[in-house]
Design a protein that fits this description.
The protein is α+β, with helices and mostly antiparallel strands. The protein is built from 16 helices and 6 strands. It has 4 domains: about 130 residues; about 100 residues, Pleckstrin-homology domain (PH domain)/Phosphotyrosine-binding domain (PTB) (PH-domain like, Roll); about 80 residues, Phosphatidylinositol 3-kinase, Chain A (Orthogonal Bundle); about 100 residues, Phosphatidylinositol 3-kinase, Chain A (Orthogonal Bundle), CATH 1.10.555.10. One of its GO terms (molecular function) is GTPase activator activity.
Amino acid sequence: QERKKKFEKDGEKFYSMLDRHLHLSSKKKESQLQEADLQVDKERHNFFESSLEYVYQIQEVQESKKFSIVEPVLAFLHSLFTYNNLTVELTQDFLPYKQQLQLSLQNTRNHFSSTREELEDLKKRMKEAPLTCKLPGQPTIEGYLYTQEKWALGISWVKYYCQYEKEAKILRMTPMDQKPGAKQGTLDLTLKSCVRRKTDSIDKRFCFDIETNERSGTITLQALSEANRRLWMEAMDGKEPIYHSPITKQEEMELNEVGFKFVRKCINAVETKGITTEGVYRTVGSNIQVQKLLNAFFDPKCPGDVDLQSGDWDIKTITSSLKFYLRNLSEPVMTYKLHKELVLAAKSENLDYRLGAIHALVYKLPDKNREMLELLIQHLVNICEHSRENLMSPSNMGVIFGPTLMRAQEDTVAAMMNIKFQNIVVEILIEHFGKVQVAAPERLHAAP
């Protein structure tokens, strides 16, 4: 009882401290994080010691039952035959059974002693290397992980007991905080990839991202420590994150030949195999796959050498990659210079003036910018023509591509307030693309 109480007390103390520890922000001072790590390691060691002692005692009690109960019964029978003057025949009949039982008891005691020594040795080895002990036939790795789950009202971290089998690439996740009446049970997921999460990309520590066949997006998991994360990533053949994506280099964020080729290939792929996909451009693809596509396409050694028509790239990855490229141009397609004028035009309540002003400003764009804009708007017109299937109207497209094709040079509150007018500009261009593309603008009079 005493060891059981100590085990339960140490367990409660350790998991309570661990839960608080995992909520520490990665942005705290390194000295604070190191001190917290040492405290958790100390509690982990105490809990581990208590666990081993408790299991050792349970094993000892179970083994001792094999003779501690039988021996008194045998002694009682011996006294019964000896002191109660039973017949010689009955005593002689009992003698072989008594001898056999004594021999069995002696063997059991010997086995108990040898097992006790083996357990002591095993306990010692487990204390020296607790993370290397694994039973044959068991999962490659198992233990607690926290999963980031996104809800309408924010993000929560849910505790799961996870078991991963490397050969089959199966991750089994059992929720530990399941509420009464909840339908969610054990999840079996097939692993596709595993990447360590960059420290500066998330507030939590010890995180890594996985992709599975059953889930469309990335799943972010939090391990219990840095060493624990290394074990999970090693089991899952995890990779380090990409720190420098070629697309972020200044010389490759221009409207150059490779950029035009990329946009045209993306448009062709979307219109060929995904133009009727519900929520096209609104549904976001996996960050890992997006970076993979961009790195492959903008590889300086062989730029543009990627077949987007192959099954390697799904529509969400292609549309997200196109938006990423446009958002990360050194200057937006509709330029910083014309940004204020375009916003002012969109604010006009006179619809004819609004259209005319935007039309005129489009023709002030540099040639390559106007060429890119017309290429994109024609594509968005084609998307909207299938709005019954894909549910994407000019208004929806304006919301998505307004901030993508237009942005203020400085992030201010005023710039944020003007985002809706950026959306209006793109919506007008989609709805009146025929006029904007075919004819040069007429001379404008001032807005009434």
